[in-house]
Amino acid sequence: MSIVHVPLRDRGYDIWIEPGLIGQAGSFVGRSGNFSRIALITDRTVSGLYGESVAESLREAGFQTHILTVPDGEDSKSYRELERLHTELIGAGMTRDGLIAALGGGVVGDLAGFTAATFLRGVPFIQIPTTLLAQVDSSVGGKTGINHPLGKNLVGSFHQPLMVLMDPETLKTLGRRDLWAGLAEVVKYGLIRDAGFFAFLEENLDALFRLSDETDVVRMLNTCCRIKAEVVGLDEREGGLRRILNFGHTLGHALEAATEYGYFRHGEAVVWGMRWAAWESHRQGLLAAPELERIDRLLGRLVVPPIPETVDASVLAEKTRLDKKQSARGLNLVLLERIGNTRTVRVTDLTDQIKGWLDHVRT
Ligand SMILES: NC(=O)c1ccc[n+]([C@@H]2O[C@H](COP(=O)([O-])OP(=O)(O)OC[C@H]3O[C@@H](n4cnc5c(N)ncnc54)[C@H](O)[C@@H]3O)[C@@H](O)[C@H]2O)c1
């Protein structure tokens, strides 16, 4: 069993990583508290694959368990689904001594977490992430939320889970695009904080994609969670250090917005965002050319769709200005000094920088 502790003063928790863990959810939950009932929130696909085995394990451990299912996809992070879940929780007799369990990818984790944060002024919840992106990123750190019709993730709160149960076996049913998109966030951790891990990924990326070596997959999950836990432990509410987790996300978010969230997976857009940020780091004299080449080579191995020809630099620059992380004083852009080391710079307009890079990648 691999365990990563998230060190938050009065809300610290453990991430448990082990193949086959999903079938033992009940005994883990049983050790952490005596809950009157459990609402297992999941989406249709994940419910079909893992819903019953998790629910059965919870019931065997003595918990009255209700499965609440939402449709797959980003549209479920909505006021509509939030209200429907609240209604179902009331109907199921959920009280503050109950527990919400989020079983699924980042959509389910964000929505179920925010449902837990807002129902009865907050009920405890746990994360059982089943996509690579959710395992290495969204299930750790306590950011929960839904989308507003005017923008992604605009409504939310910090609500830390009681524990995170991670079963690498669940990745075997994941689609190829979701695996590549998750690997994008994996590479990000090497780039921002761990040059040794970056070198490990250079060696093992293809085998990790094939999920062929269980020990390496667990090592990958453990390393990503350890880095995220360290960063979140030092800066829970994104006052400073936590911003480094946004490496590649400035242009990544802009690409997602410019293509109306229907073309790229989040991680796919982040691959392009990281390639631009590395290029910009070199252009600003921070990152040496051989390091940029290594980064481009590794990121170039991740299979992602091209940037559509219709997307131009001024649209992307405009979208970065609308990013919710932009403040009145400009945008904090995370760049690289070396593989494993970041530097944050304040920028206002990025049109020229993005244009130069787009011309470069399109030639
Ligand atoms: N809270 C955070 O810190 C944070 C960080 C990054 C991203 N996010 C959010 O995460 C969301 C994206 O998450 P995602 O990429 O996991 O997408 P997702 O939750 O939409 O899952 C992608 C698809 O995979 C399916 N799926 C999930 N697990 C599966 C499995 N084991 N086998 C087969 N199919 C499976 C789902 O049903 C869904 O259709 C976005 O809404 C993003 O805003 C949140």
Q: Which CATH class of the largest domain?
A: Mainly Alpha
Order of helices and strands: EEHEHEHEHEHEEEHHHHHHHEEH
Low-pLDDT regions: none
- Ions and ligands: nicotinamide-adenine-dinucleotide
Task: Trace the largest sheet across and list its strands.
Answer: 4-3-5-6
Cα(first) to Cα(last) distance is: 48 Å
Enumerate how many helices there are, as a single number: 13
Task: Give me the secondary-structure category.
Answer: alpha/beta
Assembly type: single chain
Residue share in helix: 40-55%
Secondary-structure arrangement, i.e. CATH architecture of the largest domain:
Up-down Bundle
Mean pLDDT: 95
Q: Count the domains.
A: 2
Q: Strand share of the residues?
A: 15-25%
Largest sheet: 4 strands, parallel
CATH homologous superfamily designation of the largest domain: Dehydroquinate synthase-like - alpha domain
Gist of the model:
By secondary structure, the protein is α/β, with parallel strands linked by helices. The protein contains 13 helices and eleven strands.
Structure characterization notes:
It is a single chain. This protein has 363 residues and is of the alpha/beta class. It folds into two domains: 2-173, Rossmann fold (3-Layer(aba) Sandwich), CATH 3.40.50.1970; 176-362, Dehydroquinate synthase-like - alpha domain (Dehydroquinate synthase-like, alpha domain). The chain is built from 13 helices and eleven strands. Strands 4-3-5-6 form a four-stranded parallel beta sheet, sandwiched between helices. Strands 1-2-9 form a three-stranded mixed beta sheet, with helices on one face. Strand 5 (99-104), helix 4 and strand 6 form a beta-alpha-beta unit. Helix 3 (79-91) packs across helix 4 (106-118) and helix 6 packs parallel to helix 10 (266-283). The longest helix has 21 residues, at 214-234. It is globular and about 60 Å long. The chain binds nicotinamide-adenine-dinucleotide. Nicotinamide-adenine-dinucleotide (NAD) binds at residues 43, 45-46, 49, 72-74, 77, 104-108, 110, 130-131, 133-134, 137-138, 141, 143, 153, 170, 173-174, 178, 266.
